[in-house]
Structures are given as C-alpha cells and as structure tokens.
C-alpha cells in the first residue's frame, strides 16, 4: 500500500504472489483478462471444459459466449496465432505493416520500427535487415531516405509476409541454448528437439570488442542466458559453444580463472547448465545471429526506449482524451 498526494491509499495486488500461496487443481489467477488452454484430444478438452465451467458457476463467474472458442486448431492470442504446428504472427498485424507508406520523418520511421519490434523473436536476421533504417533515427543524423533505406524497407516487408513458425516451449523437454560470438556481435537461440523457440542477438560495446575471443564467447553465454532468463531459470539445460577452450575453463575452480571470466561465471551462478562443445559448422543459427547483430549497444539505449514506446503506443491504441488524462494523472503521482 502506498499513500497518494491527496491522502488516498493505493492498494497494489500481484496475482503471482497469490498463486504461490493458494493452490488450485487446474487454473491460476490470470494476469490478463483472457484464459486459454492447450489440450490433447476431444476427451481431455471436454473434461477440462466441464471443470472450468463448474468452477465458474460455483463462484458466479460469467463468460461471454460470443467471445468463447472451443475445439479450435488455430486461435489468435495476444497478437500471435497459436496453431497445432507452433506460434505464428497474426497476419492482420502484418497486413497493417505491409500496407504502411514509406516513412517521411523520423517519427514515422520510429512508428514503423515499433510495429515490427514484436516479430524480432521470429526472424533470425531481422536485426541485420533493419540496421540501415535505425541509422536514420540516431541523434544528429539527418533524415535522408536513400536507395539503401528503400531497399531495406521493401526487403523487410517481404520477410514479414511469410515469417517462420516458432515451436511451443515445453518445460518437460530438454532445453538447449546455442550461442556464438563474432568480432562485434553476440547471437543466441533457444532450441527444443532441434526446433527454435526464440532468437536473440546484439552488438558488443566498444569495450567488449576489445575482449579476447574466449571472453567474447563467455559473454555470448552470459547474454544468451540472461536474454532467455524466463525459459532457463530454475531448469537444468545445455549450452552449446563452438569455442572448445571455454569448456575446460568452466571445469576449473572459479578462483583459477582470469578476473573477467570469473566475473561472468559469477553472474551465471544462479543457473544450472551443462556446457558442451559443438563445431562451428553445426552452430549455423547462432553463428549467423552473432554476425547479423542488432546495433543496440549502450550507446543507443535511448533509441531502444523510443522504439519500444512507439511499439506500445501502436499496439495499445487509446483516444487523445484518455492519453491526455494519463499524462496529467501521471504528473500528479509522486511515485511515478
């Protein structure tokens, strides 16, 4: 509970805390106002549905029949399409992006980049493709739309029409994190049974570029694990690297490692994983990501924030009146 400037009290509730205290047979308190269940077969579907409806009736919870879908092999959910094959991008969202006109200002370009930001986990080389566009939204860079930007813009739209399908994450399956480091970039991909769950890449800072190769490879592990923390924390998983000396470094006592590697290994202490060597030719995806990194170092963190804000404003549309109200109320709130 916190006290507001006017003397009123604000009560903050975290459903995740309640979920750890109150045990239920099936459903947790949702953090969002939608419920979805992935079930195998008609019998399981009907059994779980009956349980849900009985609980809803017991607690006087009503569902809008028009908004309910049953026995579907494909359903739209939170901006994505969930299918029996895996997770796809909602084509309605893609249509809006593909039909956008060429940006004429930095603000319009930010809006475009914000709209495509949510597909980053689907496309391995998205960061490489968007690099020329991101150059135009840096500080003190004039907005000059050249042939390079025009080609990039059209290529990006083509990539968005048929993006790859990502597999569902399964806590019961072995998790593999494949990582790699190039001269100036880091790449990582989460795999289960050889199928991609999510991709990630970033550029190194000027300081990191000066690291030795073994330090860069260790940094790639640290980046990949922290990037996919929500998939890895609390689980036993495997990490694949194409830098064989790193495997022996991780088998040594911590106090026998160089200082910088010690620091990175210390940061990895909360995670439980097995480090394995795999030849570079077999780490195709991670290797490609590290060489096609997004230029998102600390130097352009403001750019990342602006792009993220643009994505949120585009995804969650509100009226001008409501936006003005939010601005005014936020300004009054000392906590914010």
From TrEMBL:
Recorded coiled-coil stretches: none
Example GO molecular function: endonuclease activity
Location of the Reverse transcriptase/retrotransposon-derived protein RNase H-like domain: 145-239
A Pfam family reported for this protein in Swiss-Prot or TrEMBL: RT_RNaseH_2
Keyword Kinase appears in the UniProt entry: no
Swiss-Prot/TrEMBL keywords: Endonuclease, Hydrolase, Multifunctional enzyme, Nuclease, Nucleotidyltransferase, RNA-directed DNA polymerase, Transferase
Reverse transcriptase domain boundaries: 25-81
The UniProt record lists the keyword Hydrolase: yes
CDD domains: RNase_HI_RT_Ty3 (cd09274)
Identification of the protein by name: Reverse transcriptase/retrotransposon-derived protein RNase H-like domain-containing protein
């Amino acid at each position: 509970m916190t006290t507001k400037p006017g003397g009123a009290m604000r009560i903050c509730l975290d459903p995740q805390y309640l979920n750890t205290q109150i045990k239920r047979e099936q459903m947790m308190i949702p953090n969002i106002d939608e419920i979805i269940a992935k079930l195998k077969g008609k019998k399981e579907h009907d059994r779980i549905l009956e349980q849900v409806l009985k609980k809803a009736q017991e607690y006087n919870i009503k569902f809008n029949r028009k908004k309910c879908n049953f026995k579907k092999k494909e359903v739209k959910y939170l901006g994505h399409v969930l299918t029996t094959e895996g997770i796809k991008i909602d084509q309605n969202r893609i249509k809006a992006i593909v039909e956008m006109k060429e940006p004429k200002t930095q603000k319009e370009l930010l809006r475009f980049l914000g709209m495509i930001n949510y597909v980053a986990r689907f496309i391995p080389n998205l960061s490489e493709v968007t690099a020329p566009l991101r150059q135009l939204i840096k500080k003190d860079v004039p907005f000059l739309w050249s042939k390079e930007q025009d080609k990039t813009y059209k290529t990006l739209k083509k990539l968005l029409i048929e993006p790859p399908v990502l597999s569902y994450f399964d806590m019961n399956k072995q998790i593999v994190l494949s990582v790699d480091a190039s001269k100036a970039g880091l790449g990582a991909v989460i795999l289960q049974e050889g199928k991609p769950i999510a991709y990630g890449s970033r550029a190194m800072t000027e300081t990191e570029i000066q690291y030795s190769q073994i330090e860069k490879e260790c940094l790639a592990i640290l980046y990949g694990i922290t990037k996919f923390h929500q998939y890895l924390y609390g689980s036993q998983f495997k990490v694949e690297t194409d830098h064989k000396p790193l495997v022996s470094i991780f088998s040594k006592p911590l106090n026998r490692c160089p200082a910088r590697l010690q620091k990175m290994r210390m940061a990895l202490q909360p995670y439980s994983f097995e480090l394995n060597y795999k030849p570079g030719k077999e780490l195709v995806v991670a290797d490609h990501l590290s060489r096609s990194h997004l230029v998102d170092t600390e130097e352009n963190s403001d750019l990342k924030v602006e792009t993220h804000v643009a994505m949120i404003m585009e995804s969650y549309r509100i009226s001008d009146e409501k936006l003005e109200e939010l601005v005014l109320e936020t300004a009054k709130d000392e906590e914010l």
